[in-house]
Design the sequence.
């Protein structure tokens, strides 16, 4: 039976850091199998798995060497087939992460290209340099440095928008597109019912020219043929199965393009990830700086995407974090005395919005950023590169480290905190093999075991949010109306559908505030709060909200 993705919740697993079943320090597929009952209790409908295909792991699996086989460190094809089957028994479906903008330089296609095979060279972008010996363009890699790598054998450069070992695929070549269609069909036959497409709006490059005003992204973002290629992929593969849902990761996209990417009738993708709301603590597009989050900008972005996507009958994926982002409770909430309240508030903000919510592993128990104090503890290639780049620009090592501590992708990649044992239950405490990356010391108080049976826990708050989406049509299908748009502390909105009304009120800060809402709350009842004693709706429309207070009010009109 087709799953209604508007009533569904997706749980993202970063397998390397989720659960290690064999004591080698790396999470694996059997570790995921062992935690399916936990995920069933949470109530999620899909598990999005980041790549576990054969890979040299230069970018933690996003450098795929073989789309058809499982990296042995994660397990076997038999393990994967068992995972799909066991998840299915619990009403959970698998969503695979497809990295189709680029491959690993160890992929067979690229190895043949480097041997001089002209058929496979055209799978990639090989170009001559400029007459002065410089690369073809001045485009910057997402991981720092120039996006072109010189190959002396050909006296040519190849394009890599990411790591030097991740050459970009040439989607303008029909043979590339057909090969990628084969990959999707292979996994469909295995019973996979969801696909997440990594940086998929970068697959169409418009031209190869110097970008005098930026880093080149205007020449490869939302390119001229991207909608054509996604529609083609849809029609040749997942679009033939009504049960399959899809989501595209859209890098620096425009909302106008997303009307088509995730339009109800455009036959491209089910929904999109956009990241504008997670750049509110950047300086422009610059991530590696320390600036406070701009709350007004955050609200404006969230509200704009909610209302405009609805107007154009398009669908959002709504989320605070993933494997590439810092932990939301550290970024926007409070790691100290108001940890529980702020984590619950952040969950409420997202899960009551219009769109399919995504929970990233550990978010549902309020996991925080790393507690790393030395650069040697970090593993992320982007973080290590920028630690050096920042020093090359003149920053002191301690200042560069502080920026990395705040923004590193490793913040979301420390092991899942299952219990208070030595390695947080991620791997056997008796194992002599330490986890691939350090475990946060706060796992003694922040862990799943301490929350599953605690009715007042963050876990059970998320569980209620997941259930509410299934039970209340207004959350899944309702219109979105922003409230308190100019208030310096309150993030509030209204959802309406047929005879159902929902009002969601959140104090985004750790200090009490007052909101003169003007709302008539007659007939509403509070169905969810992050404070045990609740908060009666003010009869005169004036609300006094405690630090990080969050409430959901519901009414059925007659």
Sequence:
């Amino acid at each position: 039976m087709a799953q209604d993705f508007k009533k569904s919740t997706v749980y993202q697993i970063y397998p390397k850091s989720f659960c290690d079943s064999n004591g080698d320090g790396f999470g694996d597929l059997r570790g995921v199998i062992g935690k399916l009952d936990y995920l069933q209790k949470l109530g999620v409908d899909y598990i999005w798995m980041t790549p576990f295909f054969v890979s040299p792991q230069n970018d933690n699996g996003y450098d795929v060497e073989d789309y058809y086989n499982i990296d042995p460190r994660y397990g076997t094809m038999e393990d994967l087939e068992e995972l799909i089957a066991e998840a299915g028994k619990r009403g959970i479906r698998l969503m695979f992460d497809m990295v189709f903008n680029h491959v690993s330089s160890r992929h067979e296609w690229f190895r043949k290209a480097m041997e001089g095979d002209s058929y496979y060279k055209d799978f990639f972008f090989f170009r001559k340099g400029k007459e002065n010996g410089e690369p073809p363009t001045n485009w910057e890699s997402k991981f720092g440095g120039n996006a072109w790598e010189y190959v002396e054998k050909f006296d040519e450069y190849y394009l890599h928008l990411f790591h030097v070992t991740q050459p970009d695929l040439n989607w303008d070549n029909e043979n590339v597109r057909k090969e990628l269609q084969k990959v999707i069909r292979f996994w469909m036959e295995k019973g996979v019912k969801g696909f997440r497409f990594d940086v998929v709006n970068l697959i169409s490059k418009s031209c190869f020219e110097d970008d005098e005003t930026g880093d080149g992204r205007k020449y490869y973002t939302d390119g001229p043929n991207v909608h054509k290629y996604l529609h083609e992929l849809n029609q040749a593969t997942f679009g033939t199965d009504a049960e399959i849902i899809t989501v595209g990761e859209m890098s620096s996209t425009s909302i106008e393009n997303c009307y088509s990417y995730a339009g109800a009738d455009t036959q491209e993708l089910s929904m999109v990830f956009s990241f504008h709301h997670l750049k509110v603590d950047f300086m422009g597009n610059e991530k590696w700086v320390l600036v406070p989050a701009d709350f007004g900008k955050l609200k404006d972005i969230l509200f704009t995407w909610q209302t405009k996507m609805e107007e154009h009958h398009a669908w959002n994926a709504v989320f605070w974090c993933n494997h590439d982002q810092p932990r939301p409770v550290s970024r926007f909430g409070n790691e100290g005395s108001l940890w529980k309240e702020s984590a619950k508030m952040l969950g409420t903000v997202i899960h009551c919005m219009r769109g399919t919510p995504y929970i990233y592993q550990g978010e549902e128990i309020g996991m925080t950023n790393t507690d790393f104090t030395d650069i040697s503890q970090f593993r992320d290639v982007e973080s290590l590169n920028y630690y050096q780049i920042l020093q090359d620009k003149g920053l002191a090592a301690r200042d560069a480290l502080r920026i990395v501590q705040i923004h590193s992708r490793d913040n979301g990649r420390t092991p899942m905190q299952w219990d208070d044992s030595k390695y947080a239950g991620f791997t056997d405490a008796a194992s002599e093999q330490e986890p691939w990356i350090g475990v946060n010391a706060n796992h003694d108080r922040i862990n799943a075991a301490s929350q599953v049976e605690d009715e007042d826990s963050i876990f059970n708050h998320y569980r209620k949010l997941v259930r509410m989406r299934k039970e209340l049509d207004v959350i899944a299908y309702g219109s979105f109306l922003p409230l308190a748009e100019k208030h310096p502390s309150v993030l509030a909105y209204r959802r309406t559908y047929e005879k159902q009304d929902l009002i969601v009120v959140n104090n985004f800060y750790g200090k009490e505030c007052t909101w003169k809402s003007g709302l008539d709350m007659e007939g509403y009842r509070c169905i969810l709060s992050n404070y045990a004693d609740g908060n009666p709706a003010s009869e005169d429309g004036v609300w006094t909200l405690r630090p990080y207070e969050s409430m959901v009010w519901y009414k059925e009109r007659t």
Summary: The two ends are 33 Å apart (CA to CA). The domain at 479-556 is CATH 2.60.40.1180 (Immunoglobulin-like).
